[in-house]
Amino acid sequence: MFDNLADRLQSVFAGLKSKGRLSESDVDAAMRQIRLALLEADVNFQVVKDFTARVRESAIGADVLNSLTPGQQVIKIVLDELTRLLGGAPSKLVLSNRIPNVIMLVGLQGSGKTTAAAKLAFLLRKKGKKPLLVAADVHRPAAVDQLEALGRELQIPVWRGSASDAADAVAVARTGVRAAIDDMRDVVIVDTAGRLHVDEDMMAEAAAIKAAVKPDQILMVVDAMTGQDAVNVASAFAEKLDFDGLIMSKLDGDARGGAALSVREVTGKPIKFASMGEKPSSLEEFYPDRMAKRILGMGDVVSLIERASEAALEDELSDEDAARMAQGKFTFDDFLTSIKQMRKMGGLSAIAKLLPGMGGQQLPVEAMDESMVNRTEAIIFSMTPGERAHPRIINGQRRARIAAGSGTTVVDVNRLMKQFEQTQKMMRQMTGMAGGKKGKKAGRGKRGGNNLPFSFQ
Ligand SMILES: Nc1nc2c(ncn2[C@@H]2O[C@H](COP(=O)(O)OP(=O)(O)OP(=O)(O)O)[C@@H](O)[C@H]2O)c(=O)[nH]1
Ligand SMILES: [Mg+2]
Questions:
Q1: Closest C-alpha to ligand 1, atom 6
Q2: Ligand 2 centroid distance, CA of 294 (Å)
Q3: What is the pLDDT of residues 349-364, one digit of tens each?
Q4: Could you say which of 38, 51, 160, 291 has the lowest number of CB atoms within 10 Å?
């Protein structure tokens, strides 16, 4: 998403930073460029106008022009305004004391409701909740099966209505809440039917479900790829049905992203979640400040660390393993685990986007190359268990066999061996820095953290 916008804004900033002093006309020129960049990203016209006016006012008013680092200060002002535009403080999903809590999802056809329902259930379960998914989309026959398949994959139960209410969305929702009570589930997530356009039928059905189950939260799913349209649709929903918050879906797409930037300002409704892919784990709580930093190419190290610790926790890296690795006793099996973790974090390019100053593009080509990671994996798979555990035995003959087995060359294998030795050495040095015998403790300290053997240089 935002790649183009991020590039454009960063080049405006580079121009500002290179100047020792800024004049009012420098600021005006920068504002013109920012305005164009936002309009090209499909941000609502009025929103752009207000945004640049506010930035200009702060920049001129805050004595920025007389400061020693005017460029930096303008960037800070843009960051603050962008954060504000995206909602300011994060608006987290707050569950009430009511059991079960009912969350209803609404939105146009194909916006991502059904997948978002499953992703949300997955996220809430990670937080210790016991969700029940309710398939109240009775219009499209495959919709119920789709939710059921997702539920099966995640091992989260799905309610599809009793035989008598299968064609009645309101009845499915109502009996779903009852089923949740019987089954001691504490959150009910109701998936509803979408339509191609905002129409009376859809609104009437959504209103009827709302009246029947009195949801604690109605979340509207908005497809970020649909640009300005998404904002108009969200406004119509806000007016006709009213809802509590937004889920922006498909933020991983390459559309211009303007909808995500305008929708909060235009509808007044907070973005609560961002969906960045098709995987169940791709739904994230939305943090306006982090998103603003990503757009401005400042990276999002907090999200990166969170992803790393989640990936590590899922792999249940044991204390012993962590301690052993920290002492430099690192094997090719550990290397494989790290690759797996990295994939869970969204792969190299996703990680790169979260790193400050990287914004994706500036990474060395080799480090960006996912195919290199695949090749590494293939080489390790071609090693015997003994070789993986004791890499020192891998002599020239074995290297030739491994290269042939993995469809690579001896040069590739040698390169990996070298990289592996360097990683081992680096880990030993890090342990050394932590102070000899304390290595074990340092290892434990790494638990839940990132133990990727790759460096980004
Ligand atoms: N890349 C990407 N694809 C997504 C995302 N969210 C949903 N999709 C895809 O978008 C398509 C539509 O998603 P659904 O969840 O079925 O949409 P829906 O709103 O339930 O659609 P209807 O039931 O027809 O109204 C599916 O192919 C999803 O996999 C996302 O964040 N990123
Ligand atoms: Mg659906």
A1: 112
A2: 30
A3: 666 666 555 444 444 4
A4: 160
